[in-house]
Amino acid sequence: MLTYVALALLVAGLLTWLSVWSVGKLEAHLQRIDMGMAVERVRGDFLAGIDPGRPNRFFHGDPGSAAFPAWLRPLAPGFHKIERDGRVWHVMVDDLKGQRYMLLRDYTEYEQNQAASHWTAVSGLAGSLALAFILGILATRRMLRPLARLAAQVNARAAQPPQTRLAQDYPPDEIGQLAAAFDSTYNQLEQALRREQLFTADVGHELRTPLMVISSSCELLREEQALDAAGQARLARIEAAASDMGERLDTYLMLARGGDAADLFARESAAAAARGQLAAWTAVAQRRDMRLTLEEATQITPALLFPAPLLRAVLSNLIRNSLQYAGPQARVVITAGPDFMQVADDGPGIPAERQASIFNPFVRGEEPDAGNLGLGLSLVQRICEHQGWRVSLASRPGEGSRFRVDLAAPAREPAA
After folding, report:
1. What integer pLDDT is reported at residue 336 of this predicted model?
2. Which of 211, 237, 247, 350 is disulfide-compatible with 395, CB 3.0–4.6 A?
């Protein structure tokens, strides 16, 4: 609306100025002709011995002589428009046979009327533009009211039942087409999200049955007296793996539901989670000829407690990522503090152009393991976003990589 009003003001102003200028030029030309004829007529009467009857309006004599008022003497032959003492004079100067003849007309009232007409035109133009602006605003608001209503419905769409269609509330105009397009896109996304949630729930439900079988079988095996120390150790690893798988399923289900069920998890400190992950991954690091160590930061304040499965999932994926890409002879260091945890390695590092997308799903390094799908860091990012934690990466080619997680959970408790 403002653009169109500005354009209308520019065009109307130019047309008004052009019309006023043209009328002024035309009037000046006509007045020049009229006063030229008047000078010839008055001069003819004067030369014929007839009194022109125009005191203080008609002058004749030598050019520049005292026969003319002082303010008229400098005028050259031709038509002139002069303002003097609040009056507007039209003056015609004509020379004939060495004599100068000068005729004056008082056009004060005419000029005032002309100025008033010009101001009337300008006022009419301004009023028309103001009225057009007001009517345009009212019309625009009326036209955009359905769009504002649609925007409000879109903002509240998440609270509506699945497959709700907004287009049925609008006529088949542009707004209706926009609502139909939104319905189509949103409902497709809703179906895709629903399929993902159902898939995650189904997987979680179906995997719990074999996990229960593994756990019960481990309990039965533990009661047998024939197991030696090595067998007991292997059995303990199986039980730990089954427990870890159960915690991972709980984590995935929590992320799929989108709710905040983390308060239902057991809680532990970052240092405790780091010690557990060190024990779980040390054997893998040794098989790959790598060194995995733990450094616990000095704690001045009591350690804080966080959802244990989420801490373990984040640390586990960060450690796995370093073990996969750091390379043989590399050193991987886990650092845990009261409100942060960190995994650093001295491997080849990550190129700067890949760091922006490293947390995206299905993004893998240049030489990934056969079982790496590129989902570990994406899961880390999702867990951190869910919990309000912040994960950051610092890496340079040839200088290794450092992943740091600053823990800022909404509800944290000091360790007893």
Report:
1. 92
2. 350
Among the candidates 222, 257, 292, a domain finishes at 257
| Residues with pLDDT less than 50, the chain | 370, 410-416
3-state secondary structure of 96: strand
Of 215, 235, 257, the position where a domain reaches its end is: 257
pLDDT on residue 260: 60
Residues 219 and 313 in one domain: no
How many Cβ atoms sit within 10 Å of the Cβ of residue 240?
14
- How many domains, the chain? 3
Q: Is the dihedral of CA 327, 243, 269, 259 positive or negative?
A: positive
Looking up residue 319, the CATH number of its domain turns out to be: 3.30.565.10
CA–CA distance from 152 to each of 15, 110, 144, 261 (Å)?
44, 61, 12, 30
pLDDT of residue 414: 44
Instruction: Count CB neighbours of 337 within 10 A.
Output: 20
Question: C-alpha distances in angstroms, 14 versus 3, 10, 20, 125?
Answer: 17, 6, 10, 12
Domain identity same for 252 and 277: no
Range of the domain at 178: 174-257
pLDDT tens figures, 195-210: 777 777 777 767 777 8
Task: Give the count of beta carbons closer than 10 Å to the beta carbon of residue 219.
Answer: 11
